[in-house]
């Protein structure tokens, strides 16, 4: 399965193997490594080994009870019913009742315990995926649709859950029942057993023909639902853009196309999987008719007893039912394998390496230096975003990064935060290579105020305390006062206890920025990164934000990106970037005297 980038997300495209169609005889793509996937699922389930052993023992008990029931019925017919001797039947009837009660209890407890095992396994699987996601590099998320990742962590894991809840017991029970049934049938009549087994080749080829097609279709279905969920997530997140540009109809068409793809794959997957019970029932009925007809002739000629025929007709059902169950479960298992592969693909992604030797106890001074740094993103092929960048910023200085969009300003910020690592050149903190400093140590001494402030669905207290989780309520309030946010917070319905939504729709964009600044105050960073922190803000709010930022930057090494050049007049040093290179650098006064690019930018913006 391949994907193509569309204006509103990714859409799967069919490869040459995919477009052969479900009716073609040529082999389509199967699970990449289904044996390895099943083994990994088993290892997660096996963590509850004691309870799993108990379930397997109960499956053995239920299988034995299921075999004893028909045998006792046949014995009763031959020894008591046909001979019309009813003395001694009562213990057999009581034994039969006991067998079926024990069968019912064993089925109940094995299902009850297996549900607990399955839900525990899925819980551990989902937890590990989430933990792994938290430690993946930023580059991983930049290259993937967030909604599609969400689909893997929810829908695909739920598919695995449904399979573990039902299929595991059913597959094991079917194999056990099938083995026991064959042994008992052979002991009663090898000839009738041979007749019963005549349907096995037909069942095998029918199941193989169907599962070859459903495996591919279920895999494509999982990919299609991931793409569909990704588009829904993007649409909801970007609803303001959709409405602002009146793109509702366009989005409807995009959704219809992706939904239609999911519908088509789901239709064919379920259609083919639905063939299995129909085919199995047909073969089952044929087998039953053969056993009843041939067995009747044998009984009429005295070769077998009536009770044996009764036992065989019941066992023929028990013989074909496990085969039927195994065939049905193949579709569920294939769907689960397809989902599990997508989940394990996340877990197999390489996490951020943190092999630095500088631990969390080390306090940085704030000196930052770039030495001949060249950098390109993976998707950029040979195009370098930064080219031979060299500069240094002393502790407590404010450095402004200016330049047109795409000049490399945000990339420098990302390298400072070590969201990406450089391959050419060095990024140094206090003379130490950034790769020698643990990421947690580095980022714990940084704070970010970005253009789009992100809020969690939590109280104001909790949102601001995110900068430092051990901050007291008093420290949070003090940080908000310093950030000029206290007054508007007190006007909220519940003050600092007001629950904010993820999109922060209860407050303005400027107020969100003030909360982000308060969060940075609480963090008390050594290095501050400001990326367009005052963009899209009205003049009055901008003054408040600028005052808060000046207070926040005092005594800290700060890197500021701003298109509004009047907001960086207090910067100690300005770096002018063009196409990934530093074209000019110096103080405001030096750059104005130089009368170069920066002076021209100020002139065009009307600032004197």
Question: How would you summarize this macromolecular structure in one to three sentences?
Answer:
This protein is α/β, with parallel strands linked by helices and 608 residues long. It has helices at residues 34-45, 49-81, 89-134, 138-142, 146-188, 190-197, 200-237, 239-244, 248-300, 306-347, 409-416, 439-443, 460-465, 473-482, 486-490, 509-523, 539-553, 588-594, 597-605; strands spanning 2-6, 9-13, 368-375, 386-393, 398-403, 424-429, 432-433, 446-449, 458-459, 499-500, 527-531, 557-561, 573-578, 581-586.
Kindly describe this structure:
The chain folds into three domains: 34-347, ABC transporter type 1, transmembrane domain (ABC transporter transmembrane region fold, Up-down Bundle); 353-444 and 556-608, 3-Layer(aba) Sandwich (Rossmann fold), CATH 3.40.50.300; 446-524, 3-Layer(aba) Sandwich (Rossmann fold). The protein is 60% helix and 12% strand. It has helices at 34-45, 49-81, 89-134, 138-142, 146-188, 190-197, 200-237, 239-244, 248-300, 306-347, 409-416, 439-443, 460-465, 473-482, 486-490, 509-523, 539-553, 588-594, 597-605; strands at residues 2-6, 9-13, 368-375, 386-393, 398-403, 424-429, 432-433, 446-449, 458-459, 499-500, 527-531, 557-561, 573-578, 581-586. It has a six-stranded mixed β-sheet with strand order 8-11-12-5-13-14, with helices on both faces. Strands 4-3-6-7 form a four-stranded antiparallel β-sheet, with helices on one face. Strands 1-2 form a two-stranded antiparallel ribbon. It is elongated, with a radius of gyration of 35 Å.
């Amino acid at each position: 399965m391949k994907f193509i980038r569309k204006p509103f997300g990714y859409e799967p495209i069919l490869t040459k193997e995919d477009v052969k169609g479900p009716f073609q005889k040529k082999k389509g793509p199967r699970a990449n490594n289904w044996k390895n996937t099943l083994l990994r699922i088993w290892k997660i389930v096996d963590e509850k080994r004691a309870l799993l052993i108990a379930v397997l023992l109960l499956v053995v008990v239920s299988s034995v009870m299921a075999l004893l029931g028909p045998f006792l019925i046949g014995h009763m017919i031959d020894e008591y019913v046909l001979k019309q001797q009813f003395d001694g039947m009562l213990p057999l009837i009581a034994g039969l009742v006991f067998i079926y009660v024990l069968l019912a209890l064993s089925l109940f407890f094995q299902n009850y315990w297996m549900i607990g095992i399955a839900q525990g396994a899925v819980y551990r699987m989902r937890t590990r995926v989430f933990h792994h996601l938290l430690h993946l590099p930023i580059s991983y998320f930049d290259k993937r649709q967030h909604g599609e990742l969400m689909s893997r962590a929810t829908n695909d894991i739920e598919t695995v859950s449904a399979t573990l809840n039902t299929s595991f017991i059913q597959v094991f029970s079917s194999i056990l029942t099938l083995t026991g049934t064959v042994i008992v049938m052979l002991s009663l009549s090898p000839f009738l057993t041979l007749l019963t087994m005549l349907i096995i080749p037909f069942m095998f080829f029918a199941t193989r023909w169907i599962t070859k097609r459903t495996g591919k279709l279920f895999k494509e279905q999982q990919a299609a639902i991931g793409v569909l969920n990704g588009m829904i997530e993007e649409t909801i997140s970007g609803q303001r853009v959709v409405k602002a540009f009146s793109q509702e109809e366009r989005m409807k068409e995009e959704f219809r196309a992706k939904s239609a793809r999911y519908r088509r794959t789901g239709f064919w997957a379920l259609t083919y999987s639905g063939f299995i019970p129909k085919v199995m029932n047909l073969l089952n009925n044929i087998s039953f008719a053969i056993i009843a007809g041939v067995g009747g002739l044998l009984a009429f000629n005295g070769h077998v007893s009536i009770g044996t025929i009764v036992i065989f007709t019941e066992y023929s059902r028990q013989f074909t039912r496990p085969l039927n169950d195994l065939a049905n479960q193949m579709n569920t298992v294939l769907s689960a394998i397809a989902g599990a592969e997508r989940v394990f693909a996340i877990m197999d992604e390489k996490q951020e390496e943190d092999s630095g030797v500088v631990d969390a106890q080390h306090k940085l001074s704030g000196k930052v230096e770039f030495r001949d740094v060249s950098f390109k993103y993976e998707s950029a092929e040979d195009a370098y975003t930064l080219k031979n960048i060299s500069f240094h910023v002393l502790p407590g200085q404010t450095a402004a990064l200016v330049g047109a969009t795409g000049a490399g300003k945000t990339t420098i910020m990302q390298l400072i935060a070590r969201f990406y690592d450089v391959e050419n050149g060095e990024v140094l903190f206090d003379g130490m290579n950034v790769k020698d400093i643990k990421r947690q140590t580095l980022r714990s001494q940084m704070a970010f105020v970005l253009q789009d402030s992100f809020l969690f669905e939590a109280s104001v207290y909790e949102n601001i305390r995110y900068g430092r989780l051990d901050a007291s309520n008093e420290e949070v309030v003090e940080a908000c006062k310093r950030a000029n946010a206290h007054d508007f917070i007190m006007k909220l319905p519940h003050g600092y206890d007001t629950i904010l939504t993820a999109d922060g729709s209860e407050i303005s964009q400027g107020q969100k920025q003030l909360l982000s600044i308060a969060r940075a105050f609480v963090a008390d960073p050594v290095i501050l990164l400001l990326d367009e922190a005052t963009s899209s803000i009205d003049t009055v709010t901008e003054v408040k934000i600028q005052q808060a930022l000046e207070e926040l930057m005092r005594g800290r090494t700060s890197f500021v990106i701003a298109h509004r050049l009047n907001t960086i007049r207090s910067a100690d040093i300005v770096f002018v970037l063009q196409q990934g290179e530093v074209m000019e650098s110096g103080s405001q006064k030096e750059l104005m005297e130089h009368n170069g690019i920066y002076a021209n930018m100020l002139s065009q913006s009307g600032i004197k």
